[in-house]
Model the fold of this input.
Amino acid sequence: MKIDILTLFPEMFETIFSHSIIKRAITEKKVEIEIHNFRDYSKDPHHKVDDTPYGGGCGMVLTCQPIFDCVESLKTKDSKVILLTPDGLPYKQKVAYELSKEKHLILICGHYEGFDDRIRTLCDYEISIGDYVLTGGELASMVLTDSIVRLLPGVIEEESHKNDSFNNNLLDYPTYTKPSVFRGMEVPSVLLSGDHKKIEEYRKEESIKKTQKRRPDLLEK
Ligand code: ADE
Done:
């Protein structure tokens, strides 16, 4: 998979993908991530990328030209263009799975007070990572990239994301490691029993119980 990220703040991405699983995925060429400063595409003599809003109002609005030109220079027939915006589709694990099947993603990070609404015509998806407003789409694009890359074939064992929270609308079951007793807190005995059928049943029950308690809205789905 190739992921192109369009931002005015490329420095924000300098270390975020150089650790752990994402770093390994890049080294093993399971994903290629490229950061583009769309200011470089501005045809304005001063490389301006924003202007005042028509109709008045506060703040500056990202203009169409740099973003259109940048996207059009990267786009192929295999590309999906995604705008990160608080008024987008709520981001869910199901969406991460869908996007992980794509060959090429172009992520556009909005900034400042907003962007010219015509930029939406470039996009296949508009995505929000939650009901709160960030100063820009950079953190949101990092969240998408991380959650998608870990689902790419061979990045982590399929078994580990099969049991992820939110799969089948259930939260993850509790896990434990050694020692079996820590400050008087015991690991549930079934996990020490070696009975795989019982362990599976226990985990399923715990998943359902936790979801009922913490996220009953997931079960209603
Ligand atoms: N940009 C600003 N806030 C955002 C959010 N919640 N999700 C995606 N992009 C954003």
The first strand starts at residue 2 and ends at 7. The mean pLDDT is 96.
